[in-house]
Design a protein that fits this description.
alpha/beta; 38% helix; 8-stranded mixed sheet; 4-stranded antiparallel sheet
Length: 716
């Protein structure tokens, strides 16, 4: 359960006015949307779905029948949420929290709050200038976002970049990857003491800055090609997720130094490791081109100038010009607030189905994240209608609105750390939606036991772009006839703490592969209605997929987890690892293969047991207890993949199958401990490094054995 904080009541007249405002705005938006595709009636929606209507329970059919007008309601929510930028820790962020609170309560959900005061990072001042080789000023260069004409949003910056300055020759390092620096080495270019101009797209921005610092670079200026005047903000926090001052425990709910809880000192070595050693700054493409045009030195390697203006395709530097860059950071404790809407389960109230989306945004947040927030509020509306019809879920449903995700998944991580014991024993699943809609095409990522359920649910949801199709049909059509589901071996949204720290099976899904206005002022309601989802039907499809997944997991007698998918996926991983290590000396993958075989046997046994439990008369003595014990084994098997001490040097990542590797350029997107050991061995080849790889293989093998034992319900 969320921490037992008393709900903070809103004045009834404020809630009523908010509801009236939403109703009126919905009417206006509903008329203005006038979708080119008719909003389907409940009957037409059902007839276009693959599965027959009687395959759904009555509450689930009622949930989907609330389709008409949902697009207008979601559009009204999104308009209200994105009227102004709402960066975490600011007064505007508090206003969006109040909006979410009022609408969760209007839906009939019990609302609780969880406040924290983590260390957040804001820009104080910055400057950039182009100098002649003798230090004379050529021209000052602007650091504002060209597209933000009204300076409405926070100036572009990198959160947790340290304060610093550099007067040094610039050097172009392409994407700042290992191969890029190797290419510069071959050209005889020394980057030490230089200001690196980096093109965005080489992986996590924090890792790019850390890599530059390791090579002696003095500062980093980062740009995105063809940015149309938008500048991408973002965090460069290193080493994990969550508040840097409270690693492994929740941030206090007060800023007072003498109360509320423990914090590490800012100069503690564990804290200092979380921050880059050199300053960095995002800049507009036009500013980066001003610098690149002045560079001499060897010509750019082939491909480095692709997509850049021709005048900038000269040398890589360094120099002969200089840049003068200064940045002053403002780090401070700031209040953040998580909001929870709770529907207590009728039969298993201590088993939690958790749906989450973050609420904070770098700018207006129409895509990231409030397309997801608007969808979450529609899920709440529909769940509220089910409650009024007399329905109660078997298991407890918790809707979560996280804060400070953009700074490093801080809100969700602090809550998971605070409730880790309860979540480890009681959380069934976490269903995440961040950017619900950023274009066309359905994309999903999940832990493998949820693959089959995602397929089943998307077969029930009408496609938002083709009236005669389901989401599933369009999904497989776009992926060569398969339902492509990625794995969650990244730490870029709020599923991270749930999966990587707590071992809770997780899902993340959205519409649209790439959003060009990511973290810029182009992330606006205007962009959404003109480009992203003019009729808001994609938002509806996400809300219905999300809500129906939650209902299936909350109401099914036997949890709809399909572990044969996990076994098949692990076999693929082991095969890929063997191919990567081919000729890798004394390293043996056999321990993993043997453990997968053991897990496969346990899965077969579980499948047979599940079939028998499905057939058991619900009135039979102890039937409910037998199902609950079996469901707990399905739930806890994922926890077996955790290692208590976590990955080497990164204790917040404990999942040995799907945590992110430390090396963002790793060729493995699974088995992160093995991936890290391989990266270390490539840099320092020797017997000790080979033993390190083998040790990580054994760790994974033991984790798979633990999962098999959990699935069997055995101690040993």
């Amino acid at each position: 359960m969320p921490p037992p904080l008393p709900p903070k009541p809103l004045q009834p007249n404020r809630a009523s006015l908010s509801f009236l405002f939403l109703f009126l705005l919905s009417l206006v938006v509903y008329v203005s949307l006038s979708p080119s595709r008719k909003t389907p009636s409940p009957s037409s929606s059902s007839s276009s779905r693959n599965a027959p209507a009687d395959s759904l329970s009555a509450p689930h059919r009622l949930f989907l029948s609330l389709h008409p007008g949902a697009n207008a309601t979601i559009a009204a929510h999104l308009r209200a949420l994105t009227l102004r930028p709402h960066l975490a820790g600011t007064p505007a962020a508090a206003r969006t929290a109040s909006y979410v609170i009022s609408h969760l309560r209007a839906a009939g959900l019990r609302v609780t709050l969880a406040d924290y005061y983590p260390l957040l990072s804001y820009p104080a001042s910055a400057s950039l200038a182009l100098l002649r080789p003798d230090g004379a000023l050529v021209k000052p260069l602007p650091l504002a976002e060209p597209a933000d004409l009204d300076a409405a949003a926070v100036p572009p910056y990198h959160a947790y970049s340290p304060s610093g300055s550099a007067v040094a020759p610039p050097v172009y390092v392409n994407y700042g990857r290992e191969d890029d620096y190797s290419a510069l080495d071959r050209l005889g270019v020394d980057v030490r003491g230089c200001v690196a101009v980096v093109r965005r797209g080489g992986g996590y921005r924090g890792a790019v800055v850390a890599s530059a610092a390791a090579r002696g670079v003095a500062a980093v200026l980062m740009f995105k090609a063809a940015d149309h005047g938008g500048v991408e903000r973002g965090t460069v926090l290193l080493g994990g997720v969550g508040d840097p001052l409270t690693p492994g425990w929740a941030a206090p709910n007060t800023a007072a130094a003498d109360g509320g809880g423990e914090r590490l000192a800012a100069d503690d070595e564990e804290v200092r490791r979380r921050f880059p050693k050199i300053p960095s700054m995002p800049v507009a493409e036009v500013v980066a081109m001003e610098i690149l045009r002045t560079l001499g030195g060897p010509p750019m390697p082939r491909g480095w100038g692709e997509g850049l203006p021709s005048a900038a395709k000269s040398g890589v530097g360094p120099g002969p010009t200089l840049v003068n860059f200064t940045y002053q950071e403002d780090r401070k404790l700031a209040k953040i607030q998580n909001v929870f809407g709770i529907i207590r389960g009728s039969e298993e109230p201590d088993r939690y189905i958790i749906l989450g989306n973050h609420r904070d945004a770098w700018t207006f947040g129409a895509v990231d994240p409030n397309s997801g927030t608007a969808a979450l509020l529609d899920v709440a509306r529909r769940y509220g209608s089910l409650l009024r019809s007399g329905w109660r879920p078997r298991r407890t449903i918790i809707l979560c609105s996280w804060d400070a995700e953009e700074f490093g998944m801080i809100g969700s991580t602090e809550w998971v750390e605070q409730n880790l014991g309860r979540l480890s024993s009681k959380a069934v699943v976490y269903l995440n939606v961040d950017c619900a809609v950023q274009g066309d095409g359905f994309f999903a990522s999940a832990t493998p036991q949820l693959d089959k359920l995602i397929v089943e649910v998307t077969k029930q949801i009408q496609d938002p772009d083709f009236e005669a199709r389901t989401v599933y049909e369009s999904w497989i059509a776009n992926n060569g006839g398969i339902s492509k589901i990625e794995r969650l071996s990244r730490a870029d949204s709020d599923f991270s703490a749930f999966l990587h720290l707590a071992g809770v099976p997780s899902v993340d899904f959205y519409y649209g592969d790439v959003f060009p206005g990511y973290h810029t002022v182009f992330d606006s309601y205007k962009w959404m209605v003109e480009h992203g989802d003019p009729s808001f039907h994609r938002h509806v499809a996400i809300a219905e997929t999300w809500g129906l997944l939650g209902l299936r997991l909350a109401d099914d007698l036997v949890l709809p987890f399909d572990y044969p998918s996990y076994s098949a996926q692990l076999h693929e991983h082991a095969t890929a690892l063997s191919a990567l290590l081919d000729g890798g000396g004394s390293v043996q993958v056999q321990p993993i293969n043997s453990s997968i075989d053991e897990l496969t046997v346990a899965i077969r046994e579980a499948v047979e047991e599940s079939k028998k439990l499905q057939e058991v008369d619900t009135t039979e003595d102890f039937a409910a207890l037998r199902r609950r014990a079996f469901n707990d084994r399905l739930m806890l098997a994922e926890r077996g993949f955790l290692e208590a001490e976590g990955l080497k040097g990164r204790p917040c990542f404990r999942h040995l199958l799907y945590s992110p590797p430390e090396d963002s350029e790793s060729k493995l997107s699974f088995f992160p401990g093995i991936a890290d050991a391989i990266s270390r061995a490539r840099k320092h080849a020797g017997e000790e490094e080979q033993l390190g790889i083998q040790h990580e293989i054994w760790r994974v093998a033991r984790a798979i054995q633990r999962a098999a034992a959990a699935l069997r319900g055995e101690l040993i």
